[in-house]
Each structure stands twice: as C-alpha cells, then as structure tokens.
Design goal:
The chain has strands at about 5, 15, 25-30, 35-40, 45-50, 55-60, 65-70, 80-85, 90-95, 100-105, 115, 120-130, 130-135, 140-145, 150-155, 160-165, 170-175, 180-185, 190-195, 205-210, 215-220, 225-230, 235-240, 245-250, 260, 265-270. It contains no helices and 26 strands. A four-stranded antiparallel sheet has the order 4-5-6-7, with no helix packed on it. It has a four-stranded antiparallel sheet with strand order 8-9-10-11, with no helix packed on it. A four-stranded antiparallel sheet has the order 12-13-14-15, with no helix packed on it. It folds into two domains: about 1-135, YVTN repeat-like/Quinoprotein amine dehydrogenase (Methylamine Dehydrogenase, Chain H, 7 Propeller); about 155-275, YVTN repeat-like/Quinoprotein amine dehydrogenase (Methylamine Dehydrogenase, Chain H). It is mainly β and about 280 residues long.
C-alpha cells in the first residue's frame, strides 16, 4: 500500500511513492521495446512481471532493476499478466487468443501449459489457487480448473475487458464494453448484480473491489473514477480530475484509497468521499 508501479506508451516502468510531495519516480525499469500493457507484483514484493506490445513477458528484480527473464511465445501483444498465490507460476493473456502458464522456478523458457479456447483477444486474467479466470473480447468468461482438468464458460455476449476476484474468492467482477460491470458468483456463474453509470464502450478499463469487498470501483472514458455499493448497486461517488479515460486503478489493501492511471499521462491518489 506504500508504492505503486506504472507502465505506458514510453516503454518505461516507473516506481512511485504516491504519498510523497515530489512527483518524481523513485526508480525506472527499462527493457521493453514497445508499449507496456500490464504489471503484476510477485508475493513478497521482491520481483514483478510486466508485459506489452513487444509480445514478451519480462520478470524483474525490484532492488537492482535487472531483467531476470524474458518469456516469449505469444505471437501478438500480451494484454495481461498475473501470478499464482505462491509466485511460482506466471499466467499471461494475449491478443493472439492464448493464455500461457510459465514456471518461474524452471530455467526452461517454454510455457508449461497453453490454453487456447478463446476465439478473440484475451484481455484479462485472474488467478485463485488452482483456477484461472479469463475475460475475452469474444464475450466469454472462462474458468480453467487445473486440478480437475476442465474448463467452464459463461457467455456474457459482449466484449469483456477485465476480470477481478473478490477478496473472499467467492465472486468475480467483470467489465465489458456495454458500460456495465457485472458481479458473478464464482462457483455457479450466476449474475448477482450489475453496476452502471460510467462510460465504457471502446476502451479497456480496469474494475476492482475495495479492500473489504464493500465497494465496486471502475475507471471511465469520461475521465472519472466511479464507486458503487456492492450489495445495493447504488453509485456512491464520482471522482473527476483526469483529462482522459481512466484506464487502470488499484485499491489500497487496508483502506478506501485508490490509485488511478489515465490516458492523460497522469497518476492520481484518491480517497473517495462516498455518500451514506
């Protein structure tokens, strides 16, 4: 909850302390040859992974800034990357419709598993123990149960841009290009609630649950951060300040504070004033 990392079109990854008065990064990581699309931090915070339009997944050592591995295999841009719970496996999702699993402990740079059921770009991935959840532009939310060796699918019917797990691991939050965020039961796929009011018809935007699973948060193409009550579905806050679409956000693990990143090139720290 102290530091954050950002990546963008300039191919750099920057480490920030958003609570410092100086708006300068603490450290810079360079190695990507094209736009950085996603960053995932490993358990323990000593390393992180990144991916992007150069079709690669990079593994980084935080203190030295050194690239420890470069994983290649995707044939088009890599949209998302995530770690499993113990940081031993990295899962990447690409525009090439594939999801690839990589063993962080092996010296073999080939993926240990390739999941290729999607018929369009896989935009997002989330991991819970032995399950991998993916969102795709083909409108399908997929669950790969690696322990049971089976895949299940829930067809939403509109392009999906992000999937996130609730902290109790019972629900999935899914963003889509119909300006709707859906809360689904992880076990059954049942629609539990929907959240509307923001704008999302053309851009990949991030959604998330707050630290206590009480609030739903999302960026918007109108440059605002939106906050809803999880249970009632009411919009509780609309935080304006960016001059471009709010593409990414991350929630503090202990309090209702949110970091947002926008196409205007700015990162902002928010403490949303939610209505009772």
């Amino acid at each position: 909850g102290i530091y954050c990392r950002s990546g963008g079109d300039d191919r750099r990854i920057l480490l920030w302390n958003p609570r410092r008065e100086e708006s300068t990064p603490i450290k810079e990581y360079t190695g990507h040859s094209n736009r950085v699309a996603c960053i995932a931090v490993a358990p323990g915070n000593a390393s992180f992974a990144s991916c992007g339009a150069d079709k690669s997944v990079f593994l980084w050592d935080v203190p030295s800034g050194r690239v420890t591995r470069r994983l290649q295999g995707h044939t088009q841009r890599v949209n998302a990357v995530a770690y499993n719970a113990d940081g031993s496996v990295i899962i990447s999702a690409g525009y090439d419709t594939s999801v690839r699993c990589w063993d962080c402990r092996s010296r073999n740079n080939a993926p240990i598993q390739v999941l290729g059921e999607a018929s369009d770009s896989v935009t997002s991935v989330a991991v819970a123990e032995h399950e991998i959840f993916t969102a795709s532009v083909d409108g399908v939310l997929r669950c790969y149960d690696l322990r049971a060796g089976r895949a299940t699918r829930d067809t939403v019917g509109v392009a999906l841009t992000h999937v996130a797990l609730s902290h109790d691991a019972n629900c999935l939050l899914v963003a889509s290009l119909d300006s709707t965020i859906r809360l689904l039961d992880k076990a059954t796929g049942q629609l539990l609630s929907s959240y509307r009011g923001h704008m999302n018809s053309s851009t990949k935007l991030t959604c998330s649950l707050s630290f206590d699973d009480a609030h739903v948060l999302s960026g918007s193409e109108d440059g605002c951060l939106y906050v809803w009550d999880l249970v009632e579905g009411r919009q509780l806050a609309k935080c304006a300040g960016h001059r471009g679409a709010v593409a990414a956000l991350a929630c503090d693990p202990k309090r209702l504070e949110v970091i947002t990143a926008s196409y205007d090139g700015e990162i902002k720290l928010w403490v949303p004033a939610v209505r009772p």
